[in-house]
Amino acid sequence: MAMAELSAPKTTSTFLNSSSRLRLSSKLHLSNHFRHLLLPPLHTAPNSKISCSVSQNSQAPVAVQENGLVKTKKECYGVFCLTYDLKAEEQTKSWKKLINIAVSGAAGMISNHLLFKLASGAVFGPDQPIALKLLGSERSIQALEGVAMELEDSLFPLLREVDIGTDPYEIFQDVEWAILIGAKPRGPGMERADLLDINGQIFAEQGKALNKVASPDVKVLVVGNPCNTNALICLKNAPNIPAKNFHALTRLDENRAKCQLALKAGVFYDKVSNMTIWGNHSTTQVPDFLNAKINGVPVKEVITDHKWLEEGFTESVQKRGGLLIQKWGRSSAASTAVSIVDAIKSLVTPTPEGDWFSTGVYTDGNPYGIEEGLVFSMPCRSKGDGDYELVKDVEIDDYLRNRIAKSEAELLAEKRCVAHLTGEGIAYCDLGPVDTMLPGEV
Amino acid sequence: MAMAELSAPKTTSTFLNSSSRLRLSSKLHLSNHFRHLLLPPLHTAPNSKISCSVSQNSQAPVAVQENGLVKTKKECYGVFCLTYDLKAEEQTKSWKKLINIAVSGAAGMISNHLLFKLASGAVFGPDQPIALKLLGSERSIQALEGVAMELEDSLFPLLREVDIGTDPYEIFQDVEWAILIGAKPRGPGMERADLLDINGQIFAEQGKALNKVASPDVKVLVVGNPCNTNALICLKNAPNIPAKNFHALTRLDENRAKCQLALKAGVFYDKVSNMTIWGNHSTTQVPDFLNAKINGVPVKEVITDHKWLEEGFTESVQKRGGLLIQKWGRSSAASTAVSIVDAIKSLVTPTPEGDWFSTGVYTDGNPYGIEEGLVFSMPCRSKGDGDYELVKDVEIDDYLRNRIAKSEAELLAEKRCVAHLTGEGIAYCDLGPVDTMLPGEV
């Protein structure tokens, strides 16, 4: 920071809406009308949001009155509660307008990597100030405070606001991006149908909340698994948001697939392009070696071991997560966060000429004959405006068509199993005997 | 990646020194001659380093022969074993020469944040290719493999090589930067003198290794605690490396101090400058509110609660780590990694006009009358060439002088306690009854 650029000291601080922001609120937003099948209603604790403000020389606990209840506000992430006129300062007046980014599962390990990347400017660029809206569970609220403290201590100039809370109707207010990571892991003995229902309810609720309070053009990236069907549930509960704005993360699969092809070919991974992951983020996913290229040449011309391509390659991609847990003792939070960054950057920067990226998107109007009304990973390109278009001229041979059909069938079965959450009637679960969850992933 | 820029596919891959790199080595480097005091000799397992290579269409386990022993190499981080001519390609020919960066404690949580920042280009810039040399313990070697796998899956274009191993004499070969994070945490009932000795032995060994195999101008940043005295031990064991090249990390303290002043003043943290941490990274550290500025004005003119400055401020900085553990359940790995990035960037980018940063450096020739032969945090500036100069005209009043003297006395006591590790005779430990370790830090 150049000293010459520093303005005179402010003698007083300005707070916008300080009275409305300095509070502990306790509101109830339930979406019970789909909660009638398979499981008893979940216990729904009153959601709460902590927001805060400081005034000069005042760090004492603040008593807050709301709904006739007095609570003591013990901690305040004051720095992020201040409001600023970025246009008034030399260093920040050329910055873009602040954007609001919501992250759910914000106290988890993936978020612990992602949030610091978002705050540093590594995702949206060095002239894009951001506000982080952190959604957690009741159980994680203390950990969320810890995350906010570490964000404070990191002094990121672009990070101007941090809110933490457990109510999506508050946290999603006016957000332009929502990265939905939080989901329950499958417990011992839990059937896949149960997992679909439990997590589906979370994403139904969050879809409703986004529909009601988010920016009308919010972009939503679902990471919590099963992410394709969670994304579908989310978009079906948010009819006012374009379905095209919802994504399911298959970028880690794409990145792993590129790396495995590079390893096999003995080239560096930056030589692999045009990598598509088709279908579901599950073991039915189809990493497409037919259309991928190495140094601009079709993979099958570079890697002559076609038996490996057809039989070993997909498995090498899918087993990566499980292998990593074996080695490292925990799941791949760091590389998942990197792939989330990649997925967002692919939407906010123009796709390089001739290349594409994979993302799970709504199938309506797709040129590949994939059943409409699903969230399916396909090759996409972007002009860098947050939107994308499907790549339309990708070759599909019989091998690929057959594999894609299996993933499509799986997603259709998942869809029938969550019909009660998408407003499409009574759920019917027949997911088959085979467990199609990726090893080592929750 | 623009397709037009892709070159024709290679039909064969080139490997430099593939025979020397494709191996599991097992060498013994001991530094026993200082291990004669206070503790029985540590059990020293044979150190090992795993390095690897791949050839086209060959992913099967590789049998490696060395020292008459045949081992089976089960995993290969092949992508990082390939060698490249960066000058031959359009996209990379303008890049700087590759630098080697060693990180110890590489399987730990701080490293798990730091490594991905280094690899992404966030520290050394978008045109600086890097090689990461990951040092771990025998116990962590599997976890290190997991880290290398996640780095592979992240497809960072700038990350060209990853080596993992447990022998500093191999991992530190030709490194231009060494970030020394690994240290043992204090176990229950362990005296501070024991901790100094145990960790001191690690840093003595690593100093010797750096002295022997690192780049002669290697920059060393010690993070593992007690970091000032560890840095002193390290530099005393590396007489061929300029003592000026060794740093102890006090940047997290500086960042926290800036945040606490901002909170108190009700301003955003980017308004706080000229923040010095004096002395030891311990509870005797001195966050300097006399010379720090808010919006270019001395802090004492902006914050009129001088009682808080003298009594509450330092504690608010020091208790941050412990408070965070309370909230978040683990130590502040993410913000520590951010502060390491800040510390490195302060040395490789020019310091803004009129400002400075804090880092623990060797005291020889300091203008503040601090005893020579210590590693002491002081205000510094850099031209961005990796080197620094002390800021010489900082005002020290009686309050500050008194506080600085206490931290100096503590460091002198620590130094006497590790005399057996610095080649200065027989250790004498009298660290006093007060525990001066920062709460919540290992």
Automatic annotation (TrEMBL), chains A, B:
Coiled coil: none
Pfam families: Ldh_1_C, Ldh_1_N
SUPFAM superfamilies reported in the protein's UniProt record: LDH C-terminal domain-like (SSF56327), NAD(P)-binding Rossmann-fold domains (SSF51735)
UniProt domain Lactate/malate dehydrogenase N-terminal: residue ranges: 100-247
This protein's UniProt keywords: Chloroplast, Disulfide bond, NADP, Oxidoreductase, Plastid, Transit peptide
E.C. designation(s): 1.1.1.82
Predominant subcellular localization, coarse grouping: plastid
Annotated PROSITE patterns: MDH
Enzyme class per UniProt: oxidoreductase
Ranges of residues in domain Lactate/malate dehydrogenase C-terminal: 250-420
Quaternary assembly: Homodimer.
Family per record: Belongs to the LDH/MDH superfamily. MDH type 2 family.
PANTHER family per record: MALATE DEHYDROGENASE
Name of this protein: Malate dehydrogenase [NADP], chloroplastic
Organism: Camelina sativa
